[in-house]
Design goal:
The protein has 505 residues and is α/β, with parallel strands linked by helices. It folds into 2 domains: 95 residues, Immunoglobulin-like; 379 residues, Alpha/Beta hydrolase fold, catalytic domain (Rossmann fold, 3-Layer(aba) Sandwich). 25% of the residues lie in helices and 26% in strands. β15 and β16 form a beta hairpin. The longest helix is centred in the first third of the chain and has 32 residues.
Length: 505
């Protein structure tokens, strides 16, 4: 079996192609990025102070976003990507993790790189607040579905805000209001799924989202509609929340909440039946063994040490096949034979729009995230935050390489996705030398022509290293934490690529 895997892997490398160089929205076109902080995109009611005992009712709060734009760009009708951060619907001081704001390092990292490719990126916050430790499972479920519902409302409010700025404010961010995507990470992934597939409050009228046979946990008259364009007020006798409390204030009601693409890195969809043929294309990234958001259909639980069950949800392993069955991802049906697409197809079993990650770490849920310190918010997390930037950046580069051509297709950006070369070169043609091989610490690549990039795969086809924008005659690649064994390197040049076996001892 190992021999078959190796032969198959080399065979697919011989047909791989790359995208044209310097393609806007796929390649890094801009060096510098400008950031406008604290753009207020709406105002709505939060229950966080009520849950924390600082207030006796929900209170209005501004909804903020940091907007990233490519510096020096002359385009004025650019696609917009709205990023939603993680955080368990709680602030960093209470969520036990390493993130929870628009300043999270993964948000800054993704927003910067997307802006360098020519996108406008809004990293949006959203209302948070629930009690994961409530002793009653129904109450935990009620508070969580309401938190997710508010996140959906806020994400759609952000869409309408940016449309409003085009129509009424002379388009200060330089966006095309008909080319918008929402990309959620972790907790933001739950919001991204809900925003894409939850069409109406009545979609939540399923048994798991009812207090009892007659009392749903989400009601339009109480919570407002899914777009947050209607008022929501708590009536007498309703559970948990105070009578007369305003839970939703309308924002930007003259604009639609329509957008063109959803993406989730982690997170899960609240209900499979929400997906239908009238929804939008959707891309899912997920760690198959994610302990916090199941990739399959399973009961979501409060993380250890609480280990409290909440409600059944479905991650990308289930949701993206349903998206495909509804025909929503047919826009991606082009002949992708680039290396990242092949790796995704291999890992997902051919599921269109799904990139799954495997991990030997049972606690791994977000391999795309690293922090600048082990305690970025001064909250003394139980487990120090991941700070390994190099290996994490490989995951980020892989995700962007997978997502950006599909963003181009879903948003109709007219990207040139044609190949520049199908040439499988011989090492002698470009004077390529790789030494030492086998190696212990590092490998040196030297050639007589400029090396553009180097991608390294293990024998399952999984991308384990990616070094882009080399553009030089030599490059020293550190081993870092690659295990001993055989790998395959694809060394790319202007006129093709060389496939090279690597060995680490």
């Amino acid at each position: 079996m190992k021999n078959f895997t190796l032969l198959f892997f080399f065979s697919i490398l011989t047909i791989q192609i790359g995208f044209s160089q310097d393609v806007r929205f796929i390649d890094d076109i801009f060096t510098d990025v400008e950031v406008q902080e604290n753009v207020i995109y709406g105002v709505n009611a939060t229950i966080l102070p009520l849950l924390g005992g600082q207030a006796t009712e929900a209170v209005p709060r501004p909804l903020n976003a940091d907007v990233y734009t490519p510096a020096g760009d002359t385009e004025t009708e650019r696609p917009l990507i709205i990023l939603l951060h993680t955080g368990n619907f709680l602030p960093p001081s209470n969520n036990g993790g390493c993130g929870g704001t628009v300043k999270d390092n993964d948000m800054v990292n993704f927003a910067t790189q997307l802006a360098q490719k020519g996108y406008v990126v809004a990293v949006a916050d959203y209302r948070i607040g629930w009690n994961p430790l409530d002793p009653d499972q129904l109450t935990r479920t009620f508070l969580l579905i309401n938190a997710a519902f508010r996140g959906v409302q806020d994400s759609r409010t952000a869409v309408r805000y940016f449309k409003k700025t085009v129509a009424e404010d002379s388009n200060p961010h330089g966006i095309d209001p008909n080319k918008i995507a929402i990309w959620g990470f972790g907790t933001g992934g739950y919001i991204s799924y809900g925003s894409a597939f939850l069409d109406d409050v009545t979609d939540t009228f399923v048994p798991k989202f009812f207090f009892n046979a007659t009392t749903p946990m989400v009601v339009e008259a109480i919570n407002g509609n899914v777009d947050a364009t209607t008022f929501g007020v708590v009536p007498a006798g309703y559970p948990v929340l105070p009578e007369g409390d305003t839970l939703c204030y309308p924002n930007h009601v003259n604009y639609t909440s329509d957008y063109q693409l959803g993406i989730a890195a982690g997170g899960a969809n609240g209900e499979d039946s929400w997906i239908d043929e009238n929804d939008i294309p959707f891309i899912g990234f997920h760690v198959r063994t994610d302990p916090f958001a199941p990739c399959e259909t399973a009961v979501l639980t409060v993380p250890p040490p609480a280990n409290l069950p909440i409600v059944e949800v479905s991650g990308a392993c289930v949701t993206i096949p349903l998206v495909n069955a509804a025909g929503l991802n047919e826009v991606f049906d082009v002949n992708f034979i680039d290396d990242v697409s092949i790796a995704a197809e291999t890992a997902s079993g051919g599921v269109n729009g799904f990139y799954s990650f495997s991990s030997d770490d049972p606690a791994e849920s977000a391999p795309w995230n690293f922090s600048l310190s082990e305690d970025p918010y001064g909250t003394n997390p139980a487990i120090p935050c991941q700070t390994e930037a190099v290996e994490t950046q490989i995951v980020v580069d892989t995700m962007l390489a997978y997502a950006t051509p599909r963003i181009c297709l879903a948003l109709g950006l007219g990207c040139d996705l044609t190949a520049v070369s199908t040439n499988d070169l011989d090492a002698a043609q470009v004077g390529l030398q790789v030494m030492p091989n086998p190696a212990s610490v590092e490998v040196r690549f030297e050639a007589e022509e400029n090396i553009q990039s180097i991608y390294v795969y293990d024998l399952t086809g999984r991308l384990v290293k990616a070094h882009t924008d080399i553009n030089g005659l030599q490059f020293v690649m550190p081993r870092h934490n690659l295990a001993s064994g055989l790998y395959v390197a694809q060394v790319r040049f202007e006129n093709g690529f060389v496939t090279q076996k690597l060995s680490f001892n």
